[in-house]
């Protein structure tokens, strides 16, 4: 019996696809600085692009690096487009949420999970001669919050990000009233005031959190793409408006969109673009969609300029 009679064409294609795909690796090499001991998983496709871009894909709460690897299309897309994917793994074994509230994680070079992840980026850039000008982040829920934490605290490292169902940078810390705000134990804060959208503040107050993350920084600010469902009962839809205020203020844009396109990419989803003369903040509002929002990898890849 020949192979071609033993398996259907589809199964053979799947077999070949599997045999060509690389596998995720756990990296144990020492990093410059990983104070909270974030786990480091890396996907290197068989065919790397020359001077490859780097995508960081932090997982959601109660998830892991391997869940993110298996649960999204990014590794398969890396096979097609030749970029590297870093899957960090939260050291917080209690709930596997990211540290989005400690003074360390919220400050450039300050420590916490964000610094460990940036050290992974540094390692990857050096080891694979990757492109320091094309480092990106994307994630859902806690992974979205880590995406905005990375972009806010390390605008010199990340060129753009895509955040699905997150909150503004520093929101949990800003909304926290239970702990001394300067306490370094402020690691696993969940704030109902933030999550329910009760904490609303001015664009300037939101932007100040980002500016305080890296005092004196006057360089490039990353582009931001946001997605949020109107029926999100975990992180209320109101927080999307707070995020829009924050990033428009950080980027120096007016708070009104330059274009609004209904039914994009799906019926009931509305795309709004902010900023004059360039796509710097792109926002998708998804009518009737819950916290379990569908990721649109193709839109995210296009936004991060990873599909070429
Ligand atoms: C990353 O590398 C740059 C350039 O070598 C260095 O300035 C920076 O401190 C490094 N950051 C981390 C977190 O290792
Ligand atoms: C936190 O630190 C700031 C700046 O160092 C200081 O002004 C403030 O009083 C401190 N707050 C608390 C609660 O310790
Ligand atoms: C979001 O918050 C608003 C205002 O409190 C509330 O009316 C709405 O029901 C909340 N949405 C969800 C999905 O819980």
UniProtKB/TrEMBL annotation:
- Report if keyword Hydrolase is assigned: yes
In terms of superkingdom, the source organism counts as Eukaryota
Signal sequence segment? 1-21
A Pfam family hit: Esterase_PHB
- InterPro entries from the UniProt entry: AB_hydrolase_fold, Esterase_phb, Plant_Biomass_Hydrol_Est
Gene3D superfamilies per the UniProt record, alphabetical: alpha/beta hydrolase (3.40.50.1820)
Q: Keywords for this entry? A: Hydrolase, Serine esterase, Signal
In its UniProt entry, what is this protein called? Carboxylic ester hydrolase
- This protein's species is Sporothrix curviconia
